[in-house]
Amino acid sequence: MSTVSTPSESALLRLLRGHHDDPFAVLGPHDIDGVRHVTTYDPGADRMWGVVKGVRHPLEPCSVPGFFHGPVPGDMAYTLAGEDHGEDDEPHHFEKEDPYRFGPVLGEIDEYLLGEGSHRRLWEALGAHVMTHEGVSGTHFAVWAPNAKRVSVVGDFNWWDGLRHPMRRRGNTGVWEIFLPGIGDGAFYRYEIVGPDGSVQPRKADPMGFGSEHPPANASIVRDISGYGWSDDAWIETRAEAQSRSAPISIYEVHLPSWRRKDWGRPISYIEAAEELIDYVAEMGFTHIELLPVSEYPFDGSWGYQPIGMFAPTIRHGLPHEFRDLVNAAHEAGIGVILDWVPGHFPSDAHGLGRFDGTALYEHADPKEGFHHDWNTLIYNYGRAEVANYLTANALYWLEEYHADGLRVDAVASMLYRDYSRPEGEWVPNKDGGRENYEAISMLRRMNTECYGQHPGIMTVAEESTAYPGVSSPVDQGGLGFGFKWNMGWMNDTLEYIRKDPIYRSYHHHQMTFGLVYAFSENFILPISHDEVVHGKGSMLGKMPGNEWEKFANLRTYYGFMWGHPGKKLLFMGQEFAQAHEWNHDAEIDWTCLGDPQHAGMQRLIRDLNTLYCETPALYQKDAEEDGFAWIAGGDTGNSVFSWIRRGRADEPEVAVICNFTPAEHPRYRIGLPETGVWREALNTDAGIYGGGNRGNFGRVIADDEPSHGYPASAELFLPPLSAIFLVREEN
């Protein structure tokens, strides 16, 4: 309690006009000549009292309307009582706590780390936190707005009036805070900010808010995220092995709002998904799910890739604890959860981060650095320590608070290069005159270092489409520090090939083999993602040439090629059963097509490919090592046949993969093999159970000692049209 004189009229007028940047210097308790005096603002009150142990001490109206002031003797906690008149003109009495009698919540260490931009658990300092402070329950609000002249919490608890709860500035940190007693879980709020020019900004959602209204409404909501009872210790303790580059990783990519719809079209809830989605993924043999961004976002059509509530699981499917239920259920089923994470840009919606405190705070002021023309979004200013801290802490938040097993980082290429999708003259070079974005590179390295350091066993994945070196190399070796990288080149080349009529494929054979030139330069994931089945690209089935049977056979062969190729696997929902139509984010995927045996056969093929993959170490142990792969015949352009050997550790049986991308069958196709003896036909995509013609090798082939293709043994096999065959060496 400071010693001051009676509040001046000029100070009260500054508060009333919303221009006072130190409301605690005027409001609340202050010592005047050794006696505590209290000043409060309540424009709806006719009379006010300070109350100590049931004794009322009158507060007199000040010269500026709405303010009351007077002595409240003693040093015990006081409350405020008041009287107002409603529409019935009857006096109404109320009693409340005075927010301005409470001291700060943030401590000196918080203040130091905030000022330095190094607060790893930033979400515990900023945002809205339900707590008990100085013996009173309420919510602590804190927000970073360094250039603001005034910041207020407004909400349904104060009639959205920015003059009622202006906040306390915390030194040079740029942070404002206030503890509001009596406010709890479920309260709606925003921040009202007066910019450096004195203008009131559009009301802002909380950048660190844990909850939000249902879009298109956009207020933040106080959510108490403490106290969840996790039961996934067994998974957390073993996930490092399950997510290593020598593990089988097969990812089912999911846009939760359109995976299943319920009750005449509403999206599935987190609680429903905890049962239905997890059961389905487990049945299909996928090891992981990857969820398109779950951070709160205003526009459904962005699929979550234009988030505003970076710390809030979208309310579209339920509450934060219910999202935890989904993750917990996945872990209990032995399934990892990867979240799409979007640190590359953010939308310019008025309630978001753009010009947050009346200045370009989170973004660059210069649109040549701070605006994405492709997406009409703003680009983070990675060189500002507090912004880099915000993003790094957000990554840690999802790993810590929601037990995410990994983050797939969206649009990394757009972050790495200052000239990304920009014409000459429309970008700003780095300090050395080059195109690399040093600040973004530094932030990504910091994020990866801290995520792996704080949460061993997690995985980070880069969606990166360029030849930037060392994306999945350790930071201390000059890399970016990601665990894995999407292989966009493989995806583009192979999809171009598979679209072509088989008669022309011999001229484009290299598109299927070129990926092996660089397959071991990074820890790759082979992605058939949502981006390949939207915006006029059609479904995977729709890309295939030929009649209906040929379309299905082509796709079965392509999936066989993918599952046999080095690299972890990712498949977007609906493509596992060959959905015929392009993905529509406003409707559920076409489950009804499973009534057709061809679609049901494709679904069974993916399940069996996953099973074979996870049970056969040669198909995954050395995904990122050159000695895990060897061609049998990579150059059979005339027949459009590709054959190779996959190897695991020395004690694991080898696997031969043979893919025929023409409609011609080869009854006596000879391939070289490393050993003589029995090779089991472990999977044949032409099997009748998958919708194929049921042509094959009666479950096995016998390799004799006739050399072929540079191998000491060989075998003749029946190679069906448009098919992929997996042969596994049997033990002698």
Automatic annotation (TrEMBL):
Active-site residues from the entry: D410 (nucleophile), E463 (proton donor)
UniProt KW keywords: Carbohydrate metabolism, Glycogen biosynthesis, Glycogen metabolism, Glycosyltransferase, Transferase
GO MF annotations, alphabetized: 1,4-alpha-glucan branching enzyme activity
Pathway(s) annotated for this protein in UniProt: Glycan biosynthesis; glycogen biosynthesis
Entry annotated with the keyword Glycosyltransferase: yes
Catalytic reactions on record: Transfers a segment of a (1->4)-alpha-D-glucan chain to a primary hydroxy group in a similar glucan chain
Keyword DNA repair appears in the UniProt entry: no
InterPro entries found in the cross-reference section: A-amylase/branching_C, Branching_enzy, GH, GH13_cat_dom, GlgB, GlgB_N, GlgB_N_E_set_prok, Glyco_hydro_13_N
Domain of life: Bacteria
Record domain Glycosyl hydrolase family 13 catalytic: where: 253-607
EC number(s) recorded for this UniProt protein: 2.4.1.18
Role summary: Catalyzes the formation of the alpha-1,6-glucosidic linkages in glycogen by scission of a 1,4-alpha-linked oligosaccharide from growing alpha-1,4-glucan chains and the subsequent attachment of the oligosaccharide to the alpha-1,6 position.
Family statement: Belongs to the glycosyl hydrolase 13 family. GlgB subfamily.
Quaternary data: Monomer.
Protein name: 1,4-alpha-glucan branching enzyme GlgB
